[in-house]
Amino acid sequence: MAPSRFLYLAMSAADTAVKVLRNLEPEDFRVLLAIELGMSRYRYVHEDAIPKLANLTQREVEYRLPRLRKLHLIRRWLGPYTGYQLNTAGYDCLAVNALVKGNVLEAFGKPLGVGKEADVYNALTPNDQQVAVKFHRLGRTSFRQTRRKRGYIAERQHISWLYQSRLAAQKEFEALKLVYSHGISVPEPIQQNRHVVVMGMIEGSELVDYIRIPEPQNVLNEVLLNLRKAYLEAEVVHADLSEFNVIVQPDGHVLIIDWPQYVRKDHSNADQLLKRDVRNIVRFFQRKFKTEIRLKEALAYVKGAT
Question: How is domain 205-302 classified at the CATH fold level?
Answer without folding.
Answer: Transferase(Phosphotransferase); domain 1 (1.10.510)
